[in-house]
Write a structure and sequence with these properties.
258 residues, alpha/beta, Rossmann fold, six-stranded mixed sheet, four-stranded antiparallel sheet, 7 helices, 25% strand, globular, binds adenosine-5'-triphosphate, binds magnesium ion
Length: 258
Amino acid sequence: MLRRTPMTTAADAAPPAGEPQATGATPVFVARGLCKSYGSGDATVHALRDLDVDIWQGEFVVLLGPSGSGKSTLLNILGGLDAPTSGRAAWRDHELTGADEAALTAYRRDHVGFVFQFYNLIPSLTARENVELVAEIARDPMRAEEALALVGLSHRLDHFPGQLSGGEQQRVAVARAIVKRPDALLCDEPTGALDVETGKLVLSAIARANREVGATTVVITHNAAIAGMADRVLRMGGGRIVAIEANARRLAPEELVW
Ligand SMILES: Nc1ncnc2c1ncn2[C@@H]1O[C@H](COP(=O)(O)OP(=O)(O)OP(=O)(O)O)[C@@H](O)[C@H]1O
Ligand SMILES: [Mg+2]
């Protein structure tokens, strides 16, 4: 189990500027003073510099920013794949900072679905089997067929990855991420390797998972057009969040102009 944070801790720190403050809701992710550096001396790279962020239950966040601005580093810390050099990150009342590897593994298994640019499906298993592999170790999974239906792949259950297009493989990867009904769906450039129309199908699958599974969703992208799908857009620069924009209305992927 992750160490529980005393309830006062999250409330102590004021929300960063630009965060919704009047809702009375509690953020699911809280990061305060997050720093991540690599190397030492003159060669030190500061991937994150004193970053504060709150992310709210069920919201769809798009993370934009130039290459090297710290997007993946932030996502990996929120997903329990990486640890900050200093500062703190918490998921609900569980402290991620300082948690040991076993606790982080349990956190990822029970609460987080990941989608990366490259699908990493197991080539010798069918779409259904790739998804079942995750369902088998989850606490309250949906059926693999249900997850594949959510991403529009009911007609490809018994195909192997090599028999699927890139966009279809990425939708299998989304199904694999959501079959456990994750609390958080973290996507690092999920459309980075796809053309526009295929990318929109994958984004539709992610938006549907956010809506129907209720997973708090963070999507990293280099494509500013995708920002229209978000509740909020966080812009990163130099290891910090430099701007936060809220959209009055979320666009469907089909409405995005690429
Ligand atoms: N393992 C590592 N060792 C050393 N430096 C690293 C490491 N991982 C990331 N960095 C550095 O940290 C900074 C932030 O990297 P990060 O991957 O978070 O950026 P990003 O915004 O995701 O970029 P991109 O859009 O290119 O994926 C970069 O300067 C990067 O070179
Ligand atoms: Mg990255």
